[in-house]
Amino acid sequence: METSAILSLLPAPLVAAAIYLLLLYKYPNGNFHLVYKTFILGIACIMPVFIIDWLITYFHLDHLHSLNRTLFYSFVLTGGVFELLKFLVLRITVYPSIRVHKTFDVILYSIIIAAGFTTAYSVYALFYAPAYINVSLYALTVGPVFVSIAVIMGYFTGIALNRQFPVIELLTGLFISVVFQGINRFCLLTTDTLFLYMAAGGMLITAITLVIISLKEPGSAKSN
Q: pTM for this structure?
Protein backbone atom coordinates (compact mmCIF):
# COMPACT_ATOMS: atom_id res chain seq x y z
CA MET A 1 0.00 0.00 0.00
CA GLU A 2 1.42 3.37 -1.04
CA THR A 3 2.39 5.92 1.59
CA SER A 4 0.33 8.57 -0.23
CA ALA A 5 -2.75 6.36 0.03
CA ILE A 6 -2.31 6.11 3.79
CA LEU A 7 -1.69 9.86 4.05
CA SER A 8 -4.98 10.51 2.23
CA LEU A 9 -6.75 9.12 5.31
CA LEU A 10 -5.44 11.83 7.63
CA PRO A 11 -6.88 15.23 6.56
CA ALA A 12 -10.59 14.57 7.11
CA PRO A 13 -10.44 13.05 10.64
CA LEU A 14 -7.86 15.65 11.68
CA VAL A 15 -10.13 18.49 10.56
CA ALA A 16 -13.12 16.92 12.33
CA ALA A 17 -11.10 16.44 15.52
CA ALA A 18 -9.82 20.03 15.39
CA ILE A 19 -13.35 21.44 15.04
CA TYR A 20 -14.62 19.19 17.83
CA LEU A 21 -11.82 20.25 20.20
CA LEU A 22 -12.44 23.90 19.32
CA LEU A 23 -16.14 23.55 20.13
CA LEU A 24 -15.34 21.61 23.30
CA TYR A 25 -13.00 24.39 24.42
CA LYS A 26 -15.50 27.14 23.63
CA TYR A 27 -18.53 25.29 25.03
CA PRO A 28 -17.22 22.93 27.75
CA ASN A 29 -20.76 22.10 28.88
CA GLY A 30 -22.27 22.11 25.40
CA ASN A 31 -24.50 19.52 23.80
CA PHE A 32 -22.61 17.96 20.88
CA HIS A 33 -25.27 15.47 19.81
CA LEU A 34 -25.73 17.20 16.44
CA VAL A 35 -21.97 17.13 15.83
CA TYR A 36 -21.82 13.38 16.40
CA LYS A 37 -24.96 12.80 14.36
CA THR A 38 -23.79 14.76 11.33
CA PHE A 39 -20.34 13.15 11.33
CA ILE A 40 -21.85 9.66 11.48
CA LEU A 41 -24.36 10.49 8.76
CA GLY A 42 -21.51 11.83 6.64
CA ILE A 43 -19.79 8.47 7.01
CA ALA A 44 -23.05 6.67 6.20
CA CYS A 45 -23.27 8.55 2.89
CA ILE A 46 -20.61 6.19 1.59
CA MET A 47 -23.21 3.41 1.40
CA PRO A 48 -25.02 4.81 -1.66
CA VAL A 49 -21.59 5.37 -3.24
CA PHE A 50 -20.93 1.62 -2.98
CA ILE A 51 -24.10 0.91 -4.93
CA ILE A 52 -23.52 3.66 -7.51
CA ASP A 53 -19.92 2.55 -8.04
CA TRP A 54 -21.13 -1.00 -8.64
CA LEU A 55 -23.64 0.27 -11.21
CA ILE A 56 -20.96 2.41 -12.86
CA THR A 57 -18.72 -0.63 -13.20
CA TYR A 58 -21.56 -2.89 -14.33
CA PHE A 59 -22.59 -0.51 -17.12
CA HIS A 60 -18.93 0.28 -17.98
CA LEU A 61 -19.42 3.98 -17.30
CA ASP A 62 -15.91 4.11 -15.86
CA HIS A 63 -14.40 3.40 -19.29
CA LEU A 64 -13.37 6.98 -19.95
CA HIS A 65 -12.39 6.74 -23.59
CA SER A 66 -13.77 10.16 -24.58
CA LEU A 67 -13.99 13.71 -23.25
CA ASN A 68 -17.78 13.46 -22.95
CA ARG A 69 -17.54 10.36 -20.75
CA THR A 70 -14.87 11.95 -18.59
CA LEU A 71 -16.98 15.08 -18.09
CA PHE A 72 -20.08 13.01 -17.30
CA TYR A 73 -18.16 10.86 -14.83
CA SER A 74 -16.57 13.91 -13.15
CA PHE A 75 -19.53 16.27 -12.88
CA VAL A 76 -22.50 13.89 -12.62
CA LEU A 77 -21.36 10.52 -11.30
CA THR A 78 -18.82 12.01 -8.89
CA GLY A 79 -19.52 15.69 -8.26
CA GLY A 80 -23.29 15.34 -8.48
CA VAL A 81 -23.55 12.22 -6.34
CA PHE A 82 -21.03 13.23 -3.66
CA GLU A 83 -22.35 16.73 -3.13
CA LEU A 84 -26.03 15.79 -3.30
CA LEU A 85 -25.54 13.21 -0.53
CA LYS A 86 -23.77 15.72 1.71
CA PHE A 87 -26.33 18.40 0.89
CA LEU A 88 -29.21 16.12 1.91
CA VAL A 89 -27.63 15.49 5.32
CA LEU A 90 -27.06 19.22 5.79
CA ARG A 91 -30.55 20.16 4.65
CA ILE A 92 -32.40 17.48 6.61
CA THR A 93 -30.47 17.45 9.89
CA VAL A 94 -28.75 20.83 10.30
CA TYR A 95 -30.87 23.37 8.45
CA PRO A 96 -34.05 22.83 10.51
CA SER A 97 -32.22 22.48 13.85
CA ILE A 98 -33.10 24.99 16.57
CA ARG A 99 -29.45 24.93 17.64
CA VAL A 100 -28.31 26.55 14.38
CA HIS A 101 -28.77 30.31 14.00
CA LYS A 102 -25.85 31.73 12.06
CA THR A 103 -24.22 31.09 8.71
CA PHE A 104 -20.95 30.21 10.42
CA ASP A 105 -22.73 27.49 12.44
CA VAL A 106 -23.93 25.88 9.22
CA ILE A 107 -20.43 26.10 7.74
CA LEU A 108 -18.99 24.19 10.71
CA TYR A 109 -21.59 21.45 10.42
CA SER A 110 -21.07 21.28 6.67
CA ILE A 111 -17.37 20.66 7.27
CA ILE A 112 -18.18 17.98 9.85
CA ILE A 113 -20.45 16.19 7.36
CA ALA A 114 -17.83 16.45 4.61
CA ALA A 115 -15.14 15.20 7.01
CA GLY A 116 -17.21 12.13 7.82
CA PHE A 117 -17.88 11.43 4.15
CA THR A 118 -14.27 12.05 3.08
CA THR A 119 -12.94 9.81 5.87
CA ALA A 120 -15.18 6.97 4.74
CA TYR A 121 -14.44 7.55 1.06
CA SER A 122 -10.67 7.60 1.65
CA VAL A 123 -10.90 4.25 3.44
CA TYR A 124 -13.07 2.89 0.63
CA ALA A 125 -10.58 4.14 -1.97
CA LEU A 126 -7.76 2.23 -0.26
CA PHE A 127 -9.40 -1.01 -1.32
CA TYR A 128 -11.33 0.09 -4.40
CA ALA A 129 -9.27 2.90 -5.84
CA PRO A 130 -11.07 4.78 -8.63
CA ALA A 131 -9.61 4.06 -12.04
CA TYR A 132 -7.24 6.61 -13.58
CA ILE A 133 -6.81 8.51 -10.28
CA ASN A 134 -3.29 9.52 -9.23
CA VAL A 135 -3.28 8.64 -5.53
CA SER A 136 -0.47 11.08 -4.74
CA LEU A 137 -2.37 14.01 -6.26
CA TYR A 138 -5.53 12.97 -4.41
CA ALA A 139 -3.69 12.75 -1.08
CA LEU A 140 -2.11 16.16 -1.64
CA THR A 141 -5.32 18.03 -2.47
CA VAL A 142 -8.07 16.15 -0.62
CA GLY A 143 -7.78 18.31 2.51
CA PRO A 144 -8.14 21.82 1.07
CA VAL A 145 -10.64 20.66 -1.54
CA PHE A 146 -13.12 18.95 0.76
CA VAL A 147 -12.96 21.76 3.33
CA SER A 148 -13.36 24.49 0.71
CA ILE A 149 -16.35 22.83 -0.95
CA ALA A 150 -17.97 22.22 2.45
CA VAL A 151 -17.52 25.89 3.37
CA ILE A 152 -19.14 27.02 0.13
CA MET A 153 -22.13 24.71 0.56
CA GLY A 154 -22.45 25.66 4.23
CA TYR A 155 -22.27 29.37 3.47
CA PHE A 156 -25.15 29.39 1.01
CA THR A 157 -27.22 27.04 3.17
CA GLY A 158 -26.54 29.37 6.10
CA ILE A 159 -27.70 32.39 4.13
CA ALA A 160 -30.92 30.50 3.40
CA LEU A 161 -31.68 30.41 7.13
CA ASN A 162 -32.97 33.98 6.97
CA ARG A 163 -34.81 33.77 3.67
CA GLN A 164 -38.54 33.29 3.46
CA PHE A 165 -38.09 31.43 0.17
CA PRO A 166 -34.61 29.85 0.43
CA VAL A 167 -34.69 27.68 -2.70
CA ILE A 168 -32.34 29.88 -4.72
CA GLU A 169 -29.67 30.00 -2.00
CA LEU A 170 -29.88 26.26 -1.32
CA LEU A 171 -29.64 25.33 -4.99
CA THR A 172 -26.84 27.85 -5.57
CA GLY A 173 -24.74 26.25 -2.83
CA LEU A 174 -25.41 22.78 -4.18
CA PHE A 175 -24.67 23.78 -7.78
CA ILE A 176 -21.37 25.49 -6.99
CA SER A 177 -20.29 22.54 -4.85
CA VAL A 178 -21.09 20.08 -7.63
CA VAL A 179 -19.17 22.17 -10.16
CA PHE A 180 -16.09 22.48 -7.92
CA GLN A 181 -16.13 18.78 -7.05
CA GLY A 182 -16.49 17.99 -10.75
CA ILE A 183 -13.53 20.21 -11.63
CA ASN A 184 -11.46 18.52 -8.94
CA ARG A 185 -12.31 15.03 -10.17
CA PHE A 186 -11.76 16.00 -13.82
CA CYS A 187 -8.28 17.29 -12.99
CA LEU A 188 -7.48 14.09 -11.08
CA LEU A 189 -8.69 11.91 -13.94
CA THR A 190 -6.71 13.85 -16.54
CA THR A 191 -3.71 14.33 -14.20
CA ASP A 192 -3.72 18.02 -15.11
CA THR A 193 -1.53 19.03 -12.18
CA LEU A 194 -1.35 22.75 -12.93
CA PHE A 195 -5.11 23.14 -13.35
CA LEU A 196 -5.68 21.03 -10.24
CA TYR A 197 -3.47 23.26 -8.10
CA MET A 198 -5.03 26.39 -9.57
CA ALA A 199 -8.54 25.06 -8.94
CA ALA A 200 -7.71 23.98 -5.38
CA GLY A 201 -6.14 27.39 -4.70
CA GLY A 202 -9.19 29.18 -6.10
CA MET A 203 -11.53 27.06 -3.97
CA LEU A 204 -9.46 27.75 -0.88
CA ILE A 205 -9.43 31.52 -1.45
CA THR A 206 -13.19 31.47 -2.04
CA ALA A 207 -13.75 29.48 1.14
CA ILE A 208 -11.57 31.76 3.28
CA THR A 209 -13.41 34.81 1.92
CA LEU A 210 -16.81 33.28 2.73
CA VAL A 211 -15.70 32.34 6.25
CA ILE A 212 -14.57 35.92 6.89
CA ILE A 213 -17.89 37.26 5.60
CA SER A 214 -19.84 34.82 7.78
CA LEU A 215 -17.87 35.80 10.89
CA LYS A 216 -18.92 39.42 10.38
CA GLU A 217 -22.58 38.44 10.28
CA PRO A 218 -24.55 39.33 13.43
CA GLY A 219 -26.46 36.54 15.14
CA SER A 220 -29.98 36.20 13.87
CA ALA A 221 -32.92 33.91 14.26
CA LYS A 222 -34.54 31.96 11.45
CA SER A 223 -37.40 33.74 9.80
CA ASN A 224 -38.76 30.76 7.89
A: 0.94
